[in-house]
Each structure stands twice: as structure tokens, then as C-alpha cells.
């Protein structure tokens, strides 16, 4: 739990999480924005985050119980690459759309039927990009049972993945983040309430 508090404080200090009015990729408006693509610019914290993720996966499912790590560009792929190096596991990734030259495939890397994989992404909102990736993997007979994200925005991703038979695990969710920041008097009650309201929508 100590890491979680320190990490949340770090996210706030470095403005990796910002509060205000933002428009998300989906077009939805949000009272906060999480940009985990900034984390690799801080190698010490980045490594701690990847190590924490590795420990979490080891505890939950065991490193011996899957063959490869799979991710989606770009945010998740940076984290997955570092995790693949730490765990000495093969890495595959799923393009958002197949490339229109060469082999024109959407899944990159060495795959075989029924291989066991773990999906990694950075932030989950509705789960759209991961859902699409899981569908692409299913088409090539690579089933996904578990997906890990660093931050769950709690806006439907867990439910969307559950419908596909995938369990979503997160290191942090937005409620935890805002409650930790509020306890440390780094944000006010108004911000906390705005985030709670957004989740309950």
C-alpha cells in the first residue's frame, strides 16, 4: 500500500493526473485527465510501477500460468515492453487497424493457437481499445482471460471485458487516487465530489 500512496502523490506532483475540464479521445468530457505516457520520463518511478505490476500478476495468476504478454499501442505497449523485459516473457501487440502494406496483419509477434496471454494497458475508460484487441486475438484463436491496467477510470471497462469472459485487474482506480489525494489535502472536496459524480454516471 505504501507504493500506491507514493505513486499517487507522484502522479499529482508531476501533473500526470490533472483536474479541470478535459475532452477525452471518445469525445466525452471529464473532470480529470490521466496521462500515463509521462511516467517513462521518470525511470525510477516507471520501474517501480512495472515491478509493482509484475508482483500483482505473480500473486493473482502466477507468471508460469501464461506464455506471452500482449498489449495495444501506444500507452500500454511501453508498459508491456518493460514488463516483458522484467519477466523475460515474449511480447505481442495488436494494432488498432491492420497495416495496409506487407503482411497486413493486425496481431504482431509470434503466436500460436490457444496460447495463454495476459493483456496490458495503461488506462481503462470504457475498455474500447482493449475490447477490440481481444476480438482481434480471438479471431486468431488466442484467448484472453486476464487484462491488467494501471488506472481504471471506472466508466464501464470492467463490465465490457466481463462480457467477453475477461477479468480486468487494476493497480489503481480513480476513486482510490482522488481519495488518497484528498486525505493528503492535495485536492479539495469539490474535486473529489466531481470525480465521484462522474463515476456514478
TrEMBL record:
Q: Which residues bind orotate?
A: 125, 153
Per UniProt, residues of the Phosphoribosyltransferase domain are 51-159
Q: In which pathway does it act?
A: Pyrimidine metabolism; UMP biosynthesis via de novo pathway; UMP from orotate: step 1/2
Q: Keywords in UniProt for this one? A: Glycosyltransferase, Magnesium, Pyrimidine biosynthesis, Transferase
SUPFAM superfamilies, per the entry: PRTase-like
Family of the protein in this entry: Belongs to the purine/pyrimidine phosphoribosyltransferase family. PyrE subfamily.
Q: What is this protein's name?
A: Orotate phosphoribosyltransferase
